[in-house]
Amino acid sequence: MGKNILIVYAHQSAGSFNAAAKDAAVELLTAQGCNVVVSDLYALGFKATATKEDITGEVKNPEHFCYGEETMVAWQENRLSADIVGEHKKVTEADLIIFQFPMYWFSMPAIMKGWIDRVLTQGFAYSSEKRYSQGPFKEKLAMLSFTTGSQESMFCSNGINGDMNVTLWPIQNGILYYCGFQVLAPQIFWAPPHITSEGRMAMLSGWRKRLEGLLSETPLSFAPSDDFDTSSGFQLKSEVKEKQAESEFGLTVGHHLGKPLPPNNQFRPALCLSSA
How far apart are the C-alpha atoms of 228 and 196, rounded to whole Å? Predict the structure, then answer.
């Protein structure tokens, strides 16, 4: 049986490079027997703001509204708004979620961040007991596929924008892995508006080739929950630090232990070499 794929898509134009990348994913994955569903956020008019309107009925504490707590209770009581419930169903059924978007301000567009804020509801997507490697979605895959406005060389460790590994960490570790997703390497389309049409076609050709084997790829590595001691404020266990002491690099981008960042920890293939 084919896998269920959800593409969360955020671009205003059907003529954009992002639209072409999304269409390629739909075509190639469908051809493999997958059931592909697209949440076109702009077409849906998806509400980006997290408000009381996301809950039907009365809130528990109207004097001091706490979105996370209130929506968790509403989720438990089946009182979330219809648009969130609809996206929850798509997420629940998905084996892989692809987030397709243009990078805005070193992150994602507000409408997609709103999807994250509203759809990855506390309780449904994470809890204090179930997060990171123990998260609710630990059997699911997720990945970022996005365009940049800057060329690749600008996102090196010695480039003006800084190391892309650092840029990706809050999204891939702090959102996707936090919810338990096994995170596939991102698909980065470097500055498509600033290259030739032939260059853009080559980018899409590379993406189409990758899509043929996407579902068999090995996910990126993150620190598992078991590496941390719950009795000491969730610090890395001494045995983990002792083992890492033998390496010239840190454990991950976020858990660098004062050492150089592990090369390409947040994506493959290599972004660039320091000597380039």
Answer: 48
CA 69, 103, 222, 184 dihedral sign is positive
Burial (CB count <10 Å: 0-12, 13-18, 19+), residue 182:
buried
Supply the mean pLDDT for the chain.
93
On the question of pLDDT at 18 being above 90, the answer is yes
In b/e form, how buried is each residue of 124-155, taking b as 16+ CB within 10 angstroms?
A: bbbeeebbbeebbbeebbbbbbbbbebeeebb
Closest CA to 73 of 56, 88, 87: 56
pLDDT of 260 over the 50 cut: yes
Residue with tokens 């043929």: 212
Strands 228-229 and 235-236 come out as: antiparallel
| Buried/exposed 73-106: b ≥16 CB within 10 Å, e otherwise | bbbeeebbbebbeebbebbeebebbbbbbbbeeb
Express as a percent the part of the chain with pLDDT over 90: 86
> How far is it, in rounded angstroms, from Cα 209 to Cα 176?
24
Q: Is the pTM of this model over 0.90?
A: yes
| pLDDT tens-digit readout, 86-126 | 999 999 999 999 999 999 999 999 999 999 999 999 999 99
Number of H helices, E strands in the chain: 8, 8
